[in-house]
Design goal:
Length: 241
């Protein structure tokens, strides 16, 4: 790590897709050192290598947001190496694209697995890293949510993806909780919708690039003292809850 590093960033699920693009973009900014989260060790090493080869400040870290053991190991590593975390980006997520076809035990399993990663995973990752974020002079948390989880926007969508969308609606309440809890301490806690980006999550059917999906998250990760908190936005502006 170079001596000029002033911000330590952890991004979950950053070995591919939008998380990888957030890692690329933030590690290109002066002073930012990125911990590229991956639940699979080799995928993390390979992804980090692509950015390290460009001379970027990136190192892989194993983190499975559904595993308490993995969260404990990751927090221990960050504690011993850096003693603080400046930016946490809760990006890891899944979407079972054929979820409408499930019934019976498979439907229960789909709800369980989706909420375990997208909702409980982000909540428990945040909780695990609160002590390290508290050691930062400028804590920032970004939750990667989705406009499709907006209750106010629901009439703009057909009835689809009830599991994925409700996992993101619930995620927004977790964001509001942390934003409110730490507002007086100056933390900036916000949610970003990347837009419909072509990634593995949607079989690369999204019309936008993953690079474009990273833009608003990177902005929120770098907010100054006068930046917003407790908001839900995309690169065009505020999204109604
Ligand atoms: N793409 C879109 O159009 C879109 C729109 C709105 C919101 N989003 C949100 O954007 C975020 C990133 O999605 P993406 O589109 O970039 O999809 P992606 O390319 O499939 O990336 C998802 C990442 O999350 C990781 N992940 C999944 N479960 C995990 C777990 N239990 N622990 C740690 N990491 C885990 C995946 O790891 P593996 O590589 O090991 O599978 C992968 O690195 C998600 O939260 C998604 O809901 C995406």
């Amino acid at each position: 790590m170079s001596a000029s590093v002033s911000k330590i960033v952890l991004i979950t699920g950053a070995n591919q897709g939008i998380g990888f693009e957030i890692a690329k973009s933030l590690s290109s900014k002066p002073g930012y050192h990125v911990l590229l989260g991956s639940r699979n060790a080799q995928r993390g090493i390979d992804a980090a290598k692509k950015l390290q080869e460009k001379g970027l400040e990136v190192e892989p870290i194993i983190i499975d947001v559904t595993s308490d053991e993995s969260l404990a190991t990751a927090t221990k590593q960050v504690t011993s190496k850096f003693g603080r975390l400046d930016v946490l980006i809760n990006n890891a997520g899944i979407c079972l694209n054929d979820e409408e076809t499930f019934s019976g035990p498979a439907l229960r399993a789909a709800y369980h697995d989706t909420f375990a990663a997208n909702t409980f995973g982000a909540a428990l990752t945040t909780e695990a890293f609160v002590p390290l974020l508290s050691a930062s002079p400028t804590p920032r948390i970004v939750f990667i949510s989705s406009t499709t989880g907006s209750l106010a926007n629901d009439s703009n969508f057909p009835a689809f993806l009830p599991i994925y969308r409700s996992s993101k609606s619930a995620l927004n309440m977790i964001l509001v909780h942390y934003a409110t809890k730490y507002k007086a301490k100056g933390w900036k806690v916000n949610a970003s919708c990347p837009g419909h980006c072509g990634t593995n999550l949607n079989k690369f059917e999204g019309k936008n690039t993953p690079e474009s999906g990273a833009v608003n998250a990177v902005r929120l990760a770098m907010l100054g003292e006068d930046g917003e908190t407790g908001t839900f936005s995309n690169s065009e502006g505020t999204i109604p809850w």
